[in-house]
């Protein structure tokens, strides 16, 4: 039979073991924890020149990639021409409108950079109280210029 002190020691030992497992002090067997990506990297210190150069270069490459995705002036003019060519009558005052069918046709002809703007979600976002289910060409074009 164990003494009272031995029982208390055993109890504290078990408590500590289970508490550490529960708190995460001991590595878990759950493999999903190893798949969580790291989302924070500290900024390199002044004396870490190589890491600073790597950070600058990766930022430059990122910005170049993003700028290639932007529409240039010629592509914007082409998009406006296509939207104007496929407008759906009747006009509302001076406002040219386009229905979803023609919107998709323009999306096919506009080119790969514009493809991201020709979705049902964007059409629905710009759809207001038009009785014919159309959106304003000018509103859509302004949306592309702001987002692109």
Question: How are the elements arranged and paired?
Answer:
Layout: H1 4-23, H2 49-69, H3 73-85, E1 88-92, E2 95-99, H4 100-110, H5 120-126, E3 134-136, H6 137-147
Antiparallel strand pairs: 1-2, 2-3
Helix pairs in contact: 3-4
List keywords for this structure.
148 residues; mainly alpha; Recoverin, domain 1; three-stranded antiparallel beta sheet
Sheet/helix structural class:
mainly alpha
Major sheet description: 3 strands, antiparallel
* Mass-distribution shape: elongated
Q: The CATH topology of the domain at 73-147, please?
A: Recoverin, domain 1
Top-tier CATH class of the domain at 73-147 = Mainly Alpha
Strand order of the main beta sheet, please? 1-2-3
Mean pLDDT: 87
State the end-to-end CA separation. Answer: 78 Å
Q: Give the amount of beta strand, in percent.
A: 5-15%
- The tally of strands reads 3
GO cellular component, one term: cytoplasm
Keywords: Cytoplasm
Protein name: P2R3C phosphatase
InterPro entries: PPP2R3C (IPR039865)
Description:
It is a single chain. The chain has 148 residues and is mostly helical. The chain has a domain at 73-147: Recoverin, domain 1 (Orthogonal Bundle). It is built from six helices and three strands; from the N terminus they run H-H-H-E-E-H-H-E-H. It has a three-stranded antiparallel beta sheet with strand order 1-2-3. Helix 3 (73-85) runs antiparallel to helix 4. The longest helix has 21 residues, at 49-69. Its main location: cytoplasm. It is found in: Cytoplasm. One of its GO terms (cellular component) is spindle.
